[in-house]
Each structure stands twice: as structure tokens, then as C-alpha cells.
């Protein structure tokens, strides 16, 4: 069965420090992978996605993620965190069905706190 | 700009009341989804709909029903609200097809429901 694991429930970093949020997935075929961000009281906004091709993908707000098939991972990175990055981050894998009715399987989320 | 709207940001209801949560999308998407979000559990799929009047149960459908009479509108119904249904409810939509772009989901801002 498809699943997504985000091992870190909470992470705290200092402003200006680098960040890596981990995501591991279980999926039988080539995955579609997504990272979403949720600011407090808001819906989910897409940060970046991987469908195929270059395994290093760039997203909005200076984020990037690298798809590693051998490790079944899709970790999110940012070289220098800003206080406004404090939010909850969700990794998701697309469970695409042949009938076209696609679903997303979400991880439990990682809550990021940023110290000034 | 694509948009998914939800009828209420905050809602307070009493145990036993019938509750309607409404979601509207303006992207002509075939698929629409209702999720429940609880701390530490990520997003859990309640129901999704792949066409007008068509629906499919998600992972946690008990205590909920849905209605989709028009393509742009998807309603979540709590027939008799209970305190354990206090949660954040997120609506999303996506297109039809097996590509990565149609797997991407667009989210509304969420409805925080409190059942007293």
C-alpha cells in the first residue's frame, strides 16, 4: 500500500540556518511527489512537485527537493531559513489510478519553528 | 488565478446538529475531495467525488456524507455532529487524467469546526 513517512514531527531552526525536512514514501510505480506548506489557519499551498526528469526540483520561496529513487526519499531543503518559513510542511505522493481518478497520500506533517 | 473557496472559516455547532460544509471551485475540475486534518495525523481523506453525483469513500467516511449536484460544488454533511468531529476540514480539487499535473490538488482555506 502507498504511504508517506515524515519522521520529524517538530523541527526548530535559527533564522539563517539551513533546513532539511525528510520524506520517505512507499509506492510501487514511478511516483508523483509533492511538498505543500500550510501557514497557521490557512489551506495548503504547493511548494514544489516532481513528476519526472531532473531529480532536483526547484520550488517557490527558495525551496528545493531531491528525488532519490534508491532511497525512496524526497527531502525538502532550503539553504537559509527566514522567520516567515515557520509553518507546517506536508509531503505527498500521488496515487494515480488508470481510470484517471487521482488521489494524494499525505504524510503526517512536520511543524517548523524558526528562532530569531 | 485558480480558486477553491469554503463557505465558512470557523463554525461552532452543538452535538446532534446537522452540519453542512460547502466547497466551490472555479477551475472546472472533475475531482473534488474532503479531508480532515488533526494534529499529528496529517490529512485524512473522508470522501472524494470524480463527477457530478459520483462519490467514493475515503479512509474515514464514518459519520459523514457528501453531495455533488453541480460540478463546481461539493458539500460535506455531518448528519449528527459529535464532539469527536471537532477538526479542521479542507476541501481540494484536481483535474481528470493520469498525468502529474492532474494529480496536483488545489486547496481551499479550510473550515475549523468546533462541536460542543
Describe the structure.
The complex is a heterodimer of chains A (116) and B (116). With 116 residues, chain A is mainly beta. In chain A, 0% of the residues lie in helices and 52% in strands. Chain A has no helices and twelve strands. Chain A has strands at residues 3-5, 10-14, 19-21, 24-26, 32-38, 45-50, 56-58, 64-68, 73-78, 87-95, 103-106, 110-115. In chain A, strand 8 (64-68) and strand 9 form a beta hairpin. The model of chain A has no long low-confidence stretch (mean pLDDT 92). By secondary structure, chain B is mainly β. Chain B is 3% helix and 54% strand. Chain B has one helix and eleven strands; from the N terminus they run E-E-E-E-E-E-E-E-E-H-E-E. In chain B, the strands form two sheets. In chain B, strands 2, 4, 5, 6, 9, 10 and 11 form a seven-stranded mixed β-sheet that branches. In chain B, strands 1-3-8-7 form a four-stranded antiparallel β-sheet, with no helix packed on it. In chain B, a hairpin with a 3-residue loop joins strand 4 and strand 5 (42-51). The A-B interface holds A 6, 9, 32, 34, 36, 41-46, 49-52, 90, 94, 96-98, 100-104, 106-109 and B 4, 9, 30-31, 33, 40-43, 45, 48, 50, 56, 90, 92, 94, 96-105, 107-110, 112.
Name its key features:
heterodimer; A: 116 residues; mainly beta; 12 strands; 52% strand; globular; B: 116 residues; 7-stranded mixed beta sheet; 4-stranded antiparallel beta sheet; 1 helix; 11 strands
Amino acid at each position: 500500500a502507498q504511504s508517506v513517512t515524515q519522521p520529524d514531527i517538530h523541527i526548530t531552526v535559527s533564522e539563517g540556518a539551513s533546513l532539511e525536512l525528510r520524506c520517505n514514501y512507499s509506492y510501487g510505480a514511478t511516483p508523483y511527489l509533492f511538498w505543500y506548506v500550510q501557514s497557521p489557519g490557512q489551506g495548503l499551498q504547493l511548494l514544489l512537485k516532481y513528476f519526472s526528469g531532473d531529480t532536483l526540483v526547484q520550488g517557490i520561496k527558495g525551496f528545493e527537493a531531491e528525488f532519490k529513487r534508491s532511497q525512496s526519499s524526497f527531502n525538502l531543503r532550503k539553504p537559509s531559513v527566514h522567520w516567515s518559513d515557520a509553518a507546517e510542511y506536508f509531503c505527498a505522493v500521488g496515487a494515480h489510478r488508470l481510470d484517471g481518478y487521482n488521489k494524494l497520500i499525505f504524510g503526517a506533517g512536520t511543524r517548523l519553528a524558526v528562532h530569531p | 488565478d485558480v480558486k477553491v473557496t469554503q463557505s465558512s472559516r470557523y463554525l461552532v455547532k452543538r452535538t446532534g446538529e446537522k452540519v453542512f460544509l460547502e466547497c466551490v471551485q472555479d477551475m472546472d475540475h472533475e475531482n473534488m475531495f474532503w479531508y480532515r486534518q488533526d494534529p499529528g495525523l496529517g490529512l485524512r481523506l473522508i470522501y472524494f467525488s470524480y463527477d457530478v453525483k459520483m462519490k467514493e469513500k475515503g479512509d474515514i467516511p464514518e459519520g459523514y456524507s457528501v453531495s455533488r449536484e453541480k460540478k463546481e460544488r461539493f458539500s460535506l454533511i455531518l448528519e449528527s455532529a459529535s464532539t469527536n468531529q471537532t477538526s479542521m476540514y479542507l476541501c481540494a480539487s484536481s483535474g481528470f487524467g493520469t498525468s502529474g499535473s492532474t494529480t496536483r490538488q488545489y486547496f481551499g482555506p479550510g473550515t475549523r469546526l468546533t462541536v460542543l
